[in-house]
């Protein structure tokens, strides 16, 4: 008893949980088990700490806990000293500078995208009476037939088809209050173009060309269109929160982002429906905060677009078409220098497709174009030639084609069937079926000879040779 008490007194216990960390002659496996349990508890505590800080699961796993794991690896390489037990580091303590910088940056972006944006939406249910009274009319139009204030619109087109020229024309139409493409009336207001593809020199070169083609003077738009060229200084959708903090409400009637794919964060996958739904949710909050309509210029996927429905056109996840209010697509017409504009709209009546003809530097409607004649680049599977359908193989046809009164081995029969594109397995199945149905008969010979098949029964005189 005295000896056991002496050993217990020598044990070193942790001050936090009272767990026994070291004891002379203690079984090694028991020590490992306690160590694993303590490590799991420390990890759980750390995970809960970062969740309370507001970090999401991916950030905790890939940044916070990864940094902690590196510190644990350094700890485990240290020398053991029975006289002084050094507890393993905890995830939320003594964070290394690199991990802390990353967490601080993410935390700052969280403050931008949540705290500085409009207050959370009122999601309490409303009676129909209250709903009708509070929302008696739709939001004000920006481009009649296509877009309203606070809505988002995708503009989807193949690369290098001229969509940048088209949206410049759209911006000029809204800035001057003129109809866009001579069809869609607009409500005049200031426009912001956030361009992450073109250099400032390119924008300064292109926009005046469109102005000249439309007969618009500098005085008409010089103080009504604003351009922010971000090429070489890219911002993703999330970090634009800081940018928009300096834009007062309803300053811009319309905000154009070109090109949308370059606004996605490094970790965002445009093929991930959940990730893209989150991106559009952020844009919706910007639109609500600013009272502006957002136009997102994006590209199509590779391949033939002519056979796809409107909402299937566009690279990436399908949620991009479903999350937006207007999904406008441009697809090549079968005639050269022509495209077809079509759109799926949410708050407007359905839109008929429009044929547009390229007349540098603008697209103009051409009533002579048949909007249903989309260009087919031939990549879609071609229909099969109208050849007479070959009758399916059955036991009766198989026997009529490959077996007669002259006995043949199964090998010879299968070889003949193979020339008619009947596989060996199918031929074996049909041969067995024919035998079961009595359409062919098996001829047996000596044990060292192969059986044969014929349409006539084996005569007894062909007598099975005795071995």
UniProtKB/TrEMBL annotation:
Pfam families: AAA_25
Species assigned in the record: Rubripirellula lacrimiformis
Disordered: region residues: 374-393, 448-467
Record field: compositional bias (Basic and acidic residues): 383-393
Name of protein: Regulatory protein RepA
InterPro entries assigned to the protein according to its UniProt record, in alphabetical order: P-loop_NTPase (IPR027417)
Gene: repA_2
């Amino acid at each position: 008893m005295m000896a056991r008490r002496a050993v217990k007194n020598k044990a070193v216990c942790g001050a936090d949980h009272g767990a026994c960390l070291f004891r002379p002659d203690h079984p090694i496996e028991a020590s490992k088990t306690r160590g694993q349990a303590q490590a799991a508890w420390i990890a759980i505590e750390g995970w809960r700490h970062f969740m309370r800080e507001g970090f999401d699961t991916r950030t905790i796993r890939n940044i916070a806990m990864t940094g902690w794991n590196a510190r644990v690896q350094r700890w485990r390489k240290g020398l053991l000293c029975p006289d002084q037990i050094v507890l393993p580091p905890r995830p939320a303590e003594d964070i290394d500078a690199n991990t802390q910088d990353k967490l601080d940056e993410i935390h700052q972006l969280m403050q931008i995208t949540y705290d500085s944006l409009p207050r959370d939406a009122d999601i309490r249910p409303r009676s129909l009476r209250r709903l009708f009274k509070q929302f008696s009319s739709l939001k004000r139009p920006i481009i009649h037939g296509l877009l309203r204030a606070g809505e988002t619109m995708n503009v989807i087109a193949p690369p290098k088809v001229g969509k940048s020229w088209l949206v410049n024309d759209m911006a000029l139409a809204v800035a001057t209050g003129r109809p866009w493409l001579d069809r869609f009336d607009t409500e005049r207001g200031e426009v912001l173009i956030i361009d992450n593809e073109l250099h400032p020199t390119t924008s300064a070169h292109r926009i005046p060309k469109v102005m000249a083609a439309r007969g618009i003077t500098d005085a008409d738009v010089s103080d009504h269109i604003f351009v922010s060229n971000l090429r070489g200084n890219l911002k993703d959708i999330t970090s634009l929160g800081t940018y928009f903090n300096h834009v007062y409400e309803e300053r811009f009637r319309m905000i154009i982002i070109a090109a949308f794919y370059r606004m996605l964060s490094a970790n965002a996958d445009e093929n991930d429906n959940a990730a893209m739904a989150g991106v559009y949710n952020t844009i919706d909050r910007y639109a609500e905060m600013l009272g502006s309509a957002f136009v997102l210029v994006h590209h199509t996927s590779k391949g033939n677009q002519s056979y796809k429905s409107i909402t299937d056109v566009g690279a990436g996840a399908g949620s991009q078409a479903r999350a937006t209010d207007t999904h406008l697509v441009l697809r090549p017409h079968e005639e050269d220098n022509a495209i077809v504009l079509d759109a799926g709209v949410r708050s407007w009546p359905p839109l008929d497709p429009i044929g547009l003809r390229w007349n540098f530097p603008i697209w103009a409607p051409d009533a002579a174009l048949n909007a249903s004649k989309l260009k087919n680049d031939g990549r879609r599977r071609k229909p099969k030639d109208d050849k007479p359908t070959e009758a399916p193989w059955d036991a009766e046809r198989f026997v009529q084609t490959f077996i007669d009164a002259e006995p043949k081995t199964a090998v010879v029969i299968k070889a003949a069937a193979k020339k008619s594109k009947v596989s060996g397995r199918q031929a074996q199945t049909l041969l067995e079926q024919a035998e079961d149905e009595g359409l062919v008969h098996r001829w047996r010979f000596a044990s060292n000879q192969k059986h044969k098949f014929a349409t006539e029964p084996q005569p007894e005189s062909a007598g099975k040779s005795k071995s």
